[in-house]
Design brief:
Number of strands: 0
Shape: elongated
Largest sheet: none
Distance between the termini: 31 Å
Number of domains: 1
Radius of gyration: 17 Å
Strand content: under 5%
């Protein structure tokens, strides 16, 4: 059972990170898109946030089961560090994408500034996700 949980955990990590990479080329196109095309790009952003949120639930659940079955204590530095980064990222994710996407759907907005804000949020969140991935893969002794 443990190897299957590792597989599920790894797959959910890929689903949690991968779709954000696809959004990078959309940022440039979003600056100049019009009408239905803009809506499809914004729908892609919203779908990605929703998909990765649910994949994150599987990721955390499988990680907790792996900790329990593998007898990993909470005090292990890379586990504690990952959970600290995870909880910080939850607050960031809640405010990073949805409000900006909502404003982009409204008429009379400063598109360039909002797309720049969306891009900054995307790159910051990717950094946070890769930081958690690094902690999980490299398992550094932080203390």
């Amino acid at each position: 059972m443990y190897p299957w949980l590792v597989f599920i955990h790894s797959l959910s990590a890929m689903v949690s990170i991968g779709p954000y990479i696809v959004l990078i080329p959309m940022l440039r196109k979003l600056k100049s898109s019009e009408g239905a095309v803009t809506d499809s790009y914004l729908d892609s952003f919203q779908f990605t946030v929703r998909l990765t949120k649910h994949a994150g639930h599987v990721l955390v659940g499988s990680g907790l089961l792996l900790m329990w079955l593998g007898d990993w204590p909470w005090t292990t530095s890379w586990i504690a560090g990952t959970f600290i980064v995870l909880f910080a990222s939850l607050f960031f994710l809640a405010r990073a994408f949805s409000p900006t996407i909502r404003k982009l759907r409204e008429p009379g907005h400063d598109r360039i500034a909002l797309v720049r804000k969306l891009g900054r949020a995307l790159y910051i969140y990717l950094f946070v996700l890769f930081l958690m991935l690094w902690l999980m893969v490299m398992k550094p002794q932080l203390w």
